[in-house]
Amino acid sequence: MTGSTIVPARPAARWFFPLVPPMVLLVAACGPARVAGSASPASTGPAGPAASVTAPSPAPPASGAETPGAAVERWVTQILEERYTEACLSGAPLLPAGQDAEALCQSPQALSSAKSLRAAWAKPGVDLPPQGKVEVAAVPAKGSKVTVPDTAVELDGRTLHSLELIGATGDTGSFSLSLKVEKHAGAWYVTGFDLKA
Asked: Omega before 130 cis (within 30°)?
């Protein structure tokens, strides 16, 4: 009987690298994304200061949340329940004017990206909604934009950060994901994220 072959551990960055492009596509389709070392997705309009969205969105109106934590809780739950288009459309009120939210959110790239996010969080032995609860620690809102780190979001009693690291090898100390939440017309919406790997 021969012993099993030991495979050297890969650096954490290699483990996470395949998740980065799909995750960027999801948020690029649904709103602004910020990934460490890169700029926000290019807009289709002329360069200049960002204008507030005042025109009605072509997508069905999405209802925002009363707090940043509630917006994150709803969005993460939608991803985990495989309601990908609904999660994507929930940020439609903050899309630049003229973008077709329905088409963007139903694109194969956006759906693939949402599935990648779910795979990063839905791990064996972890109860998913509705059995497993998504809970967000209180995040103080200073102004109309808030960043919610993955360490502040729990699924079934475990942080999203700890779930993202399951299966990772090597130095994972630099990895983090934080969700961007923005207030618009009195309600909060998840609009993007920062990913550092």
From this structure: yes
Q: Sign of dihedral through CA atoms 91, 93, 98, 101?
A: positive
Report the 10 Å Cβ neighbour count for 137: 13
Ordered by where they begin, the domains of the chain are: 12-37+62-196 (3.10.450)
Per-residue pLDDT in tens (0 to 9) along the chain, 197 residues: 544 444 333 333 223 333 433 343 344 344 433 333 333 333 333 333 333 333 333 344 457 999 999 999 999 999 999 999 999 899 888 888 888 899 988 899 888 888 988 999 999 999 999 999 999 999 888 899 999 999 999 999 999 999 999 988 778 888 888 999 999 999 999 987 787 87
- The pTM for the full model equals 0.70
Pick the closest to residue 145 from 60, 46, 55, 50 (CA basis): 50
Which helix (H) or strand (E) segment is 101 a member of?
helix 101-105
CA–CA distance, 120 with 75 (Å, rounded to integer): 15
DSSP assignment of 147-195 = EEEGGGEEETTEEHHHHHTTT--S--TT-EEEEEEEEETTEEEEEEEEE
